[in-house]
Amino acid sequence: MMMAIIPLALPNKIGFSLPFLYKPITTRGGGGGGSICSAFTCRSVSSPTSFTWDDVVQASLPDYAPNDSSDLSGFFEKIKYCNRGSSEIKSEFIPLVIEDQILGYIHNGFFDNYLRRFKDVFVFVPSDSRFGTNVTLNKTLSTPEERTRVVGNVIKYLAEEEKELIPGIRNELYPVAPSFGSPPYFSVERAAAPYFGIKAYGVHMNGFVKRDGEKFLWIGKRSPMKQTFPGMLDHLVAGGLPHGMSCVANLIKECEEEAGIPLSLSNQAMSVGAVSYVDVDRYRYERGVLFCYDLELPGGFIPKNQDGEVESFKLIPVENVASVIRRTHFFKPNCSLVIMDFLFQHGYFFSIVSLVYFHTHLAGHLQVYLCLPALIKTRTPMTCHKNHTN
């Protein structure tokens, strides 16, 4: 059955000038009653039924907040949200060092309360001429395989004994390395990666369609059964990059699993850059690097989820998607960053004032690097960014 394009009209470009209006909207909970929350503050990560596609449509309408289409503050808020707690990093986290390489950062409290007891695995170094106070692994753990096995046993134990400490165990390994593409010193359970402050990589793809001179984005609504951010809006395709898999192979796999995109289409995806962010939340120090891809899809293509992780899809005009990001917290937070990158590359931030101002704030203050069209790079076929060290 064909999915209809949501027939909404907004300004063709996003400018920069006016104050932003936040307006309450009605959201429908699972109990059948309505509740009121701010469209800007309503995240409800734990409540997968906190908003519907009707709420998404309502938030994208021009009369929802008249004359706000030129304001950027809603976008800045999403960037700030993904870069929380920066001032805490130096004072509360200590480096994880192996063989003279800083591989991550561990919170003092997480080490003292949970890791210190495993003295045959983790070693506290009170003073080091090069790194100062740091944590390392026992020197008897000399190979990546040994480290992966032993650290994995610790994580498994903590996840079983401390039920709320490391939620969402996936039995999926992330490489622990100083930079992308370099040999890993060991691998760690994906759900535990932020607790060790390692760089974690992912592939995110915007799937778009052109019709009558207008661009539309396919947007997914995550399954209410997802362990993380259930029921929130997402890209057409996105996934973490596990150990031992290339960006290209992972993207092709995710295209098939999440949206039923065949190889004949997925291998046409274009690599368009990367965005990165640093998010500190208590014991978690998330250093995310997202490799961004665009794929222009045929007008008649309809995505079909294959793995049960997506509840439904909608094809929405790009301008409307921008309004939803600006006005709400309906999108999974880091997905907002990648879609903002898409807005840049496809010319939806047209004012040179807003372009320079926005990019200055991103690159200079928030450690999120978005691509300026034509000024930074050109679009290339699917590749990995092998030397990404941010």
UniProtKB/TrEMBL annotation:
GO terms for molecular function: 8-oxo-dGDP phosphatase activity. Signal peptide: none annotated. Pfam families: DUF4743, NUDIX. InterPro entries: DUF4743 (IPR031804), NUDIX_hydrolase_dom (IPR000086). It comes from the Eukaryota. Residues 200-341 form the Nudix hydrolase domain. Probably mediates the hydrolysis of some nucleoside diphosphate derivatives. Belongs to the Nudix hydrolase family. This is Nudix hydrolase domain-containing protein.
